[in-house]
């Protein structure tokens, strides 16, 4: 029997079709109420990656969500953010009410500075997801903004998309206030360091290519530095100063994270994962994983179940 793998969806239309969701408002944007899809959306999704940013507010119901190596429970008051390309799977435990929005980078293509702002939001950083639990009073401004956006997206004027981009920025400003107040932040020290951000983005892009079989190896520090037009020693020094880790450590951590994601989220064998991550021998992958985590890949998979 074929080992279950994961699917990759490029474009919001394909993602909506695969998940039994309403047709998108445009190829680059989708917004709807959860209750509009309860009849068509399957209770459990496939394991997949997509090129979309997602944010949502649950006002009632429950959804178990698996992202990479983490498991979440989305329920009343959950405000949720997810950046592209992370392995994910959901399982609906109770019918949901609330709102969910999907957009991709093309939606901000006309405003490069806007796209840069989105990429640098703490909710959409390297870890790829943020979950906050809001009180009823904290939820209301976001409910109001979602309703405003729903009204605008169903209008016909050509200016609706420009209005929508402004409303998204307002939403993210308010969300960042809540996030920094109530949620754990990651890599705050690197917030304003362009080289660090560029390295993080390049690292994610490289591992996306790796996961899709479009690169034959994991880049070395020298190769990442060449891509960024800096000396390898300068890159490692800057990363150690801002993140407390060298470039080599961060590359290895990202490789371990990808391995954990595949072990936790898919049923690929250890051997299949080793070759997918471009190890020349499964035994070398096992040694690498054991050294990094203190346990064998199979032990981690059993513990993560």
Question: Strands, helices and their partners?
Answer:
Blueprint: E1 7-9, H1 12-18, E2 29-33, E3 48-50, E4 53-67, E5 70-75, E6 78-82, E7 88-103, H2 112-120, E8 129-133, H3 136-153, H4 160-182, H5 194-211, H6 221-228, H7 232-243, H8 247-265, H9 270-276, H10 282-293, H11 297-304
Parallel strand pairs: 1-3
Antiparallel strand pairs: 2-7, 4-5, 4-6, 4-7, 6-8
Helix pairs in contact: 3-4, 8-11, 9-10
Provide a descriptive summary of the structure in words.
By secondary structure, this protein is an alpha+beta fold. It has two domains: 7-182, Regulatory protein AraC (Jelly Rolls), CATH 2.60.120; 189-304, Homeodomain-like (Arc Repressor Mutant, subunit A), CATH 1.10.10.60. It has helices at 12-18, 112-120, 136-153, 160-182, 194-211, 221-228, 232-243, 247-265, 270-276, 282-293, 297-304; strands at residues 7-9, 29-33, 48-50, 53-67, 70-75, 78-82, 88-103, 129-133. Strands 2, 4, 5, 6, 7 and 8 form a six-stranded antiparallel sheet that branches. The protein has a two-stranded parallel sheet with strand order 1-3. Helix 8 packs across helix 11 and helix 9 (270-276) packs across helix 10 (282-293). The longest helix is centred in the middle third of the chain and has 23 residues, at 160-182. The protein starts with 6 loop residues before the first strand and ends with a helix. Residues 184-192 have low confidence and may be disordered.
């Amino acid at each position: 029997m074929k080992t279950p793998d994961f699917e990759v969806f490029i474009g919001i239309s394909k993602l909506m079709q695969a998940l039994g969701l309403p047709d998108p408002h445009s190829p680059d944007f989708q917004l709807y109420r959860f209750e509009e899809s309860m009849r068509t959306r399957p209770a459990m999704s496939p394991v997949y990656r997509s090129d979309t940013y997602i944010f949502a507010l649950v006002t009632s119901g429950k959804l178990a969500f698996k992202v990479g190596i983490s498991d979440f429970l989305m329920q009343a008051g959950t405000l949720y953010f997810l950046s592209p390309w992370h392995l994910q799977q959901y399982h609906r435990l109770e019918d949901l009410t609330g709102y969910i929005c999907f957009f991709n980078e093309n939606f901000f293509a006309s405003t490069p500075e806007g796209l840069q702002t989105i990429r640098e939001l703490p909710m959409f950083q390297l870890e790829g997801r943020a979950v906050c639990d809001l009180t009823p009073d904290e939820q209301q401004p976001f409910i109001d903004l979602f309703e405003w956006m729903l009204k605008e997206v169903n209008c016909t004027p050509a200016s609706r998309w420009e209005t929508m981009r402004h409303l998204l920025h307002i939403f993210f400003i308010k969300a960042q206030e809540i996030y920094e107040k109530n949620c754990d932040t990651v890599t705050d020290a690197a917030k304003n360091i362009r080289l660090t951000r560029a390295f993080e983005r390049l690292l994610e892009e490289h591992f996306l290519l790796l996961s899709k079989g479009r690169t034959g190896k994991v880049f070395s520090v020298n190769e990442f530095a060449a891509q960024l037009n800096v000396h390898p020693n300068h890159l490692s020094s800057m990363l150690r100063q801002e993140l407390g880790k060298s470039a080599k450590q961060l590359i290895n951590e990202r490789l371990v994270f990808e391995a954990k994601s595949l072990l936790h989220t898919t049923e690929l064998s250890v051997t299949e994962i080793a070759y997918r991550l471009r190890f020349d021998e499964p035994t070398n992958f096992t040694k690498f994983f054991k050294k990094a985590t203190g346990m064998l890949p199979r032990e981690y998979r059993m513990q993560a179940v």
